[in-house]
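new request in #modeling-help
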Amino acid sequence: KAGVTQTPRYLIKTRGQQVTLSCSPISGHRSVSWYQQTPGQGLQFLFEYFSETQRNKGNFPGRFSGRQFSNSRSEMNVSTLELGDSALYLCASSLSSGLYEQYFGPGTRLTVT
Amino acid sequence: LAKTTQPISMDSYEGQEVNITCSHNNIATNDYITWYQQFPSQGPRFIIQGYKTKVTNEVASLFIPADRKSSTLSLPRVSLSDTAVYYCLVGDIRSGGTSYGKLTFGQGTILTVHP
């Protein structure tokens, strides 16, 4: 069974731009969660989508948004990029909503200059 | 939100059993304890999850005492490939749980396995 895939793997953007990251969950998984990982803050929960609906949200500003499609694929968008948004963005999928056994993708490394 | 404390680093040798303890004194009633493993440049990998007592799967065991203020991840007979960062996550993992949105992984424990 194929694992969680994320595209692109690496991205360089400048301040003020926006970016869209994509995540394809494991086949059959309906929940997709997004996380931000930085050396200083560690791994922080952004939001979770289940059946095309945002079920849970972390403490991030409204510049961070996401959506999920009917095939469970998910996208995350960050608008008006700031230098502090440089991070590894990870998505994880699971069968059901909630943070039960999750399978993580390799991440997208975003660098904001 | 339960704050977790783990050792920053641990060293072991191949074939030994490794126990990593996580302290979470203010764990809430609905909080679960989950452990993840992460290698450089990869996403975390789920190891084990539990609520109370002992949980065992094919790769690890999780011991949780009655007061649930700490938990211990036990890795039997480690190998060089177990060198990684191990994260203890404590929180309400149920969808819509009270502390769900505030879940944060701690800094983790760097486990180094020597030949």
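bot summary: Chain A is about 0% helix and 55% strand.
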